[in-house]
Amino acid sequence: MTLLELRPGRVALDDLVDGLHDPPTVPARSSAPQPRRGHPLDDALLALPAEHYARMLAGLEASRAGKITCSFHRGDTTPSLQLYDDGSWYCFGCQRGGTIYDFAAALWAPAPSTASSSPCASASPKSLASLPAEARRAPPA
Length: 141
Known about the structure:
This protein has six helices and four strands. By secondary structure, it is α+β, with helices and mostly antiparallel strands. The protein has a four-stranded antiparallel sheet, covered by helices on one side. Helix 3 runs parallel beside helix 4.
């Protein structure tokens, strides 16, 4: 049968697929973050649902839809950060996302205006007093 002989509504599906080969099978792609190998706790941390670590790290309780207000950009009054069961998250406001590692890094990263060349530049003597004695010692020269 040629294409000229095909008329709408008059061709059986079997005639169209006759002689076609099955497509090659491709393994399904997972949207879940791929674990970084390097520490035995990596698999355990990456397996945590994002809802759990957002509550533990930032003290934010997710809505029934799995959304929280984003701590990474200003003025987020409507929850725009979506937490997923596979351990990932994505903020539709600031367009950032990732794993537990990315969440913690963004949560505790210094703001660009307060960042300095020394990580201890913003530490006050009062905050240093609460540290154990071995942590307050100057590093060896």
